Amino acid sequence: MAGAGSAYPGIALLLRAAPAAREDVRAVPYQPQPGPQGGQSFRTSEVDVARDWLQAAYGTSLRMRTPATRRPFRYSRTSAGPLSLSTLALPTEYSYTTDPLGAVAITHVVGGRMVGECKDGVTRAGPDDVLVISQPHLPYRGEVYGADLRAVTLPLALVQELAGRPAGQQGRPLRFTRFTPVSGAMADQWKRTVDYVEASVLGLPTDGAPLVVDAAARLLAATVLAAFPTDARPEPVLADTRDATTDTVRRAVAFIESHPAAEIGLADAAAAAGVTPRALQYAFRRHLGTTPMAYLRRVRLAQAHADLLAADPGRDTVTAIAHRWGFHHQGRFAAAYRAAYGVPPRAALARS
């Protein structure tokens, strides 16, 4: 894989083209959306059918060659809330152009190879590479050569929120300073995280566990920031440290404790406290020795504890109650519950 660059070709097939973005934009807060949940798929052995369907569905300008083999084109997409996981098998060569995505998209090249290009440069990727497909605000183009692809898309606002960029801040949009992971270990970490989310979250019923889906989206966004270098994390400013007061903590705690079931994040708590996300983080570390999101998890754990004690053991389950309060990893939920209450959650349910 060559140095810094752009794009990934297949993602043009995953999202409708977004309007071109300006270099100077105002960051907006992440707003969790219910969105469609479930999946869709497409399969054909006819190149003309595949090209026409993909262009009509996604508004992408692309050219395809007739494949040398009769291996079919395959596309599937699974969505839950803001998350989208797509897999594509494209047994041919094709070229594409697309407008800015307006989202963060990461792909795992399972097989084949690709070349992508945008204003920031060129990226070449081969089997088992992981990469960001483009700058979210820039158009891009490229070619694909018999590729099998696995791609995840996330809201740009969510990634910027977790990076500590205040909502409403005027400035350039998030930029990736490199389109490849910081290390092979972080590339593997991304793949494991996607596997975990696919197995434990994307298979949930369409009407269940919105807090679990929100937590999974934040887990993936945090993994993006750990795996790929960006310019999104601002340097501390004096105003942030001055705002890190006990009053700031009190306002944020009141907001969190009155909205434990809401899909809230750092930016929401900071807005309720009237400070920047970075100032809120400083305040919680200085006065409570924790983080705002860790405090939110503690409040939700207490809510789960109350529900377990009030539950009907013949009807309710530990898993359902944990999901209700945003705990999607049952082993970690059980460990946190035992540490807080001295017994495993199943024992608490049995006593109710």
Keywords:
352 residues, two-stranded antiparallel ribbon, 10 strands, 8-stranded antiparallel sheet, globular, alpha+beta
Please give a structural write-up.
By secondary structure, the protein is of the alpha+beta class. The chain is built from 12 helices and 10 strands. The protein has helices at residues 47-58, 156-162, 184-200, 210-227, 238-242, 246-258, 266-273, 277-288, 292-310, 318-324, 330-341, 345-351, and strands spanning 25-26, 38-44, 61-64, 73-80, 83-98, 103-118, 121-125, 130-132, 140-155, 170-171. The strands form 2 sheets. Strands 2, 3, 4, 5, 6, 7, 8 and 9 form an 8-stranded antiparallel beta sheet that branches. Strands 1-10 form a two-stranded antiparallel ribbon. Strand 6 (103-118) and strand 7 (121-125) form a beta hairpin. Helix 9 packs parallel to helix 12 (345-351). The longest helix is centred in the last third of the chain and has 19 residues, at 292-310. The protein is globular. The termini are far apart.
H/E order of the elements?
EEHEEEEEEEHEHHHHHHHHHH
By helix and strand content, what is the structural category? Answer: alpha+beta
The rough form would be described as globular
- β content, as a range? 15-25%
**Which blocks of ≥5 consecutive residues have pLDDT under 50?**
1-28, 32-36
Give the C-alpha Rg: 22 Å
Work out the number of β strands.
Answer: 10
H/I helix tally:
12
Average predicted confidence as pLDDT = 80
Taking the sheet with the most strands, its summary is: 8 strands, antiparallel
- The first-to-last residue Cα distance is 57 Å
- Share of helix among residues? 25-40%
